[in-house]
Specification:
Order of helices and strands: HEHEHEEH
Strand content: 15-25%
Radius of gyration: 13 Å
Shape: globular
Number of domains: 1
Number of helices: 4
Mean pLDDT: 78
Length: about 80
């Protein structure tokens, strides 16, 4: 994930980890420990999970600026690249 972030950070691309069923304290601890540059958010009320029909964890979903799903459970970064750039 870090490699993907580094490769596309200057191309108007954001990698975002959305945590469900985790406390803010646990998320902060994890991101601090991993020293990640990825943005992490907590889906406290389940609205994001519901909006994008997340049925399993982890789920990789590629979403464009219009909040349209481009790819769900993309099998490789190559597929993601083809759909985005």
């Amino acid at each position: 994930m870090e490699k993907i972030h580094d490769k596309y950070k200057n191309k108007d691309f954001v990698l975002l980890s959305i945590y469900i069923q985790k406390s803010k304290k646990k998320i902060k601890s994890c991101t601090d420990k991993c020293k990640t540059h990825l943005k992490a958010r907590l889906d406290e009320d389940g609205s994001v999970t519901e909006s994008f029909t997340v049925v399993g964890i982890p789920t990789l979903t590629l979403i464009n600026k219009k909040s349209e799903i481009i790819c769900r459970q993309c099998r490789s970064i190559d597929i993601m690249q083809e759909k985005m750039f």
